[in-house]
Amino acid sequence: MKSIRALERGLEVLQLLRQSEGRSLQQLHDSTGLPKPTLLRILHTLEQAGIAWRAIYDGLWRRAIALPAAQRPPEATQRLAELAAPHLAALQRKALWPSDLLVYKDYMMELAESSRRLSGLSMNPRYHLGYRVDLFLSAPGRAWLAFCTQAQRDDVMTHYRAHPPENPRSAIVLRREIDAILDETQRQGYAVRDAIFGGGVEDISEFDDGLDAIAVPILAADGVQGCINMIWPRRYCLRAKVVEAHLGDLQATAAAIAAARDAAAPVAAG
């Protein structure tokens, strides 16, 4: 009995996606020898079926969470990134400045998706999916701390008082300023990046990505699922203008992501 060639090709591509943490169209072409237009038709078919997706941060194709894999982001994180991607892209088209989606993991925030690639903004050379960000100095970290549960916040504080942050500015904020920062964040509904945070674990004098940011939480039915920010070059001194022009858009995007997440994974009653 003859096999179905189109199906064989699709399964070949799917197998490659299952073996990789992300592949470009060129890499798939090199591995399969299939013409790129054929590969695009296969990938779009897999995407429409919910079997594959393309991250906007790096443009790489990845398997969707429906497929088992030995190594991949936690299912909840990957699903949130899949749901958030079109909303982040739409926000970037409207505001021009890009946004990141970060989730809390092991006492830091972790990058799950980003629209930076769409904006043309100069990239932090260290930044990649999975990059870990300071809780006390970053806008997403402060947004998460301000709107998480008291038990989660207490756990973070206990951890860092036993294991002080590497960044000296972060250690100072923890000791002297964090309560006031979180109170202000709760009152205004958004968080801001620390003025002397360079985006790394070390002091800003050693590494500085040159950015500023605001961030809001993604408030789903069962709590804060992550945070999204909006970033721009610090040298432009745009914070007040960004808040005035785009805070509502950022909050609406976070609400849309939360609604999509709740619809995809409704909380069990009782």
From TrEMBL:
Name a Pfam family for this protein.
HTH_IclR
Q: Which domain of life is it from?
A: Bacteria
Q: Which residues form the signal peptide?
A: none
Identify the residues that the record assigns to the HTH iclR-type domain, covering every copy: 4-65
IclR-ED domain mapped to chain residues: 63-263
Keyword annotations = DNA-binding, Transcription, Transcription regulation
What is the name attached to this protein's record? Answer: Helix-turn-helix domain-containing protein
Q: From what organism does this protein derive?
A: Aromatoleum toluvorans
